[in-house]
Amino acid sequence: MRCFFVDPILLDSNPVLLEGDLHHQLSRVLRLAPGAPLCLFDGQGQVVHGELEALSKNVSRVRVLTRFRENPPPLSLRLIQALPKGEKMDLILQKGTELGVSRFTPWLAARSIARPSGDRQANRLKRWERIVREAAQQSRRPFLPRIDAPQTLGSAIGGQEQLKLVLWEQESMPLAHALPTSPPAEVAIMVGPEGGLTEDEVAQASSAGFVPVGLGRHILRTETAGFAVVAILEYLYGDFGRS
Questions:
Q1: What is the reported pTM?
Q2: Residue 138 backbone class (left: φ over 0; alpha: ψ -120 to 50; beta: rest)
Q3: CATH number for the domain whose boundaries are 2-69
Q4: Domain segments of the chain: what residues?
Q5: Which end of the chain is more exposed for a tag (fewer CB within 10 A), N or C?
Q6: Strand residues in the chain grouped as ranges (E)
Q7: Are 63 and 37 contacting, i.e. CB atoms less than 8 angstroms apart?
Q8: 76-241: CATH topology
Q9: pLDDT at 172
Q10: In 10 A of CB 50, how many CB atoms?
Q11: Backbone angles phi and psi of 237, in degrees to 5
Q12: Using alpha carbons only, how large is the chain's radius of gyration in Å?
């Protein structure tokens, strides 16, 4: 069953009428025929299972079969990712969404090479939103992750999560020693850039309640370090450990 995000208002009707880009995708790109099963999300937990009823020149009609609301995930994960160079952020957003990240907070580290501004930053944010939406559709996540605009470290670490981790290979306790036995509802994971975090950045994060942790003998790239920790936390506290 193919899944798509739509405007929440559209899901209030039956049939659901889809126009614009989504209609073009259904009719011209995927070339779906009437009777094809579809899953529609509003990004906030509401889910509609239906079937493609008819296709006209400008509108796809979806007949609603069932309508329900999913519970929020047991673990809310925020990935505070230092902005990497090139297209690495695209990969981080795509795979992070598939793994269960609830919110992405890009930040500009002292050693960050990429520093978009103005129109370039606005265009990049639009592309990021599209990447997250497509990844959430592919992995059938009914809750659409949030993406923040790139910000300073001080703004990025200002959240109120129950557990806050900063990945740092120097003088850090093992990750396992920092994880509580009682499942936290919200976790923030801070990752540095290609050149690593500075001592001042780690000190600033620590003063905001972040615990410096290491990942053993292995030094992971900025685009994979967050994935490793997200997968571990999802297994221990989130959906990966649930039947």
A1: 0.91
A2: alpha
A3: 2.40.240.20
A4: 2-69, 76-241
A5: C
A6: 2-5, 16-18, 37-41, 46-55, 60-69, 76-82, 103-107, 146-147, 163-167, 173-174, 186-191, 211-214
A7: no
A8: Alpha/beta knot (3.40.1280)
A9: 76
A10: 22
A11: -125, -15
A12: 20
